[in-house]
Amino acid sequence: MDVAKMEFQNQYQQADQMPEYECLLFDLDDTLYPLSSGLSKQCTKNIEEFMVKKLGIEEKRVTEVNQVLYKNYGTSMAGLKAIGYNFDNDDYHSFVHGRLPYENLRPDHVLRTLLLSLPYRKLIFSNGDKVHVAKTLSKLGLNDCFEGVICFETLNPTNDDEGCSSTSIFDHSCLFDAEISELPVTPIVCKPFANAYEQAFEKANINPQRTLFFDDSIRNIQAGKNIGLHTVLVGTSNRTKGVDYAIESIHNIREALPELWEINNKDTAMGRTFSGKLLAIKTSVTA
Ligand SMILES: [Mg+2]
């Protein structure tokens, strides 16, 4: 086989192996806006304040307790519920997210143009509550770029503590040396746990094999990869296990994944339409 023919065949095989995406699934915080906005830092401060003021956790231990809960449970809230604290979900969200410096977020016209030029279903998949997601998208000028939002309330529709039946608080000191399997289970459904992804796929009618998932958390990315998603880690260019693509900023999508637009051209040429799917999802995803 001559070289030209081999090259042609390689190209053809690569194109053939490239998944045909139909959906782009985006985390929100620190993915669609940069960490430098300061929201994430303030969020951690607010969580720690909630833990001290509302739950009576010792101030000098609050940072380490929060870190270990976040590490083991995906979100601090999921961890707090798991170890036996009872509190109203909406109270928590308004305390923690209600006082974030949203004024630091500015309309992102570059991202908006990129998103609108991508002819795929686009959905938000966030552990955050619906008010926070809506406010953030609005500040970024991106509300109309997504056909649906999967957020805290989508995965945890009832605001009761039935799942959290323990009457005592799990000893904080045990948190630090416990194996994951020994830790109490959380009643909260959130990334990076498999049930969160499964429910999201079901509620939003997502086929993970045809979906590209963007998140700044390596843990969420690896969990997504394990469950069949194609993955883009945002915030770093270092690719590690479970990461199909790594980009410093969400603005780099076009450089990292030009094929997303090439498929656009191909599909347009073939007269393929996406509008039917867009309509279908609007009614099935609540946020
Ligand atoms: Mg994030």
UniProtKB/TrEMBL annotation:
Transmembrane segments: none annotated. It holds the Pfam family Hydrolase. InterPro entries: HAD-like_sf, HAD-SF_hydro_IA, HAD_sf, Pyr-5-nucltdase. This is Suppressor of disruption of TFIIS-like. The lineage of its organism: Eukaryota, Viridiplantae, Streptophyta, Embryophyta, Tracheophyta.
